[in-house]
Amino acid sequence: MPVLHEAAGIERALLALQPLRERGHEVIVVDGGSGDDTVDRARGFCDRLLMSRPGRGHQMAVGARHAAGDALIFLHADTELPPDGDLLINGALAGGATWGRFDVCLSGGGRGLRLVERAMNLRSRLTGIATGDQAVFVRRDVLEAAGGVPAQPLMEDIELSRRLLAVGRPACLRDTVWTSSRRWEEGGLVRTILTMWALRAAYRLGVSAHRLAAIYYPRRRRPRPYGGRTQDIL
Predict the structure, then answer these.
(1) Domains in the chain, ordered, with CATH?
(2) How would you write the pLDDT of the chain (234 residues) with one tens digit per residue?
């Protein structure tokens, strides 16, 4: 779980994962330099708590390197798995899938958000491109063969999907993960959709992920200065 400034919801997110820990699964949190008390609130609710340089892709890569399991799932702090999510993943992988993702259900109400989530799920099913909100899971050996998680601050989910598509199509589970609709609610539905389309188009045209991240992330979300090495702070 890559996190940055998630103090408001990190405890809730990690509490939802405690049944998975009880079933023997490992929960790793990688903080990218939060300026709030995300780290203090996460302590005690995960198996490893790491501090790394910022950038969601880099944080995911750090977590993957420190994970002990043969299968990995990348979960955003504002996304919640179904209660039997681990069983669904194990079933998909046992059935021959090398990687996959869930359908997504947005937290807010209203017809507009229902259309957004349906469009996200359909687009992903047709293209094989998964978003980070859909809780991507993958076999470790497949991830390593594909070159690992791209260490970039934005569009890491798009780039990771492209790498994994070279190995095979994803298992598109129709079981849903719940994810926060806050970015659509805060930015406005139409404006957020247009912004995401523009970012994806720019990325396809060759604009670097670092340049896009500087535009997309507001200054208040930028991380604290980083000391330069991954730290295990649990």
Answers:
(1) 2-218 (3.90.550.10)
(2) 999 999 999 999 999 999 999 999 999 999 999 989 999 999 999 999 999 988 899 999 999 999 999 999 999 999 999 999 999 999 999 999 999 999 999 999 989 999 999 999 999 999 999 999 999 999 999 999 999 999 888 999 999 999 999 999 999 999 999 999 988 888 899 998 998 999 999 999 999 988 888 888 765 455 555 555 555 655
Instruction: Give the H or E element holding residue 179.
Output: strand 171-179
Query: What is the rounded distance in angstroms from the CA atom of residue 5 to the CA atom of residue 34?
Result: 5
Q: Which residue has the tokens 């259900």?
A: 105
Distance from C-alpha of 135 to C-alpha of 76, rounded to nearest angstrom: 7
Nearest to 214 by CA among 223, 206, 205: 223
Which 3 state secondary structure label does DSSP give 108? coil
The CA-atom distances, in angstroms, between 107 and each of 58, 101, 115 are 27, 18, 13
Angle formed by the axes of helices 156-165 and 56-66, nearest 10°:
50
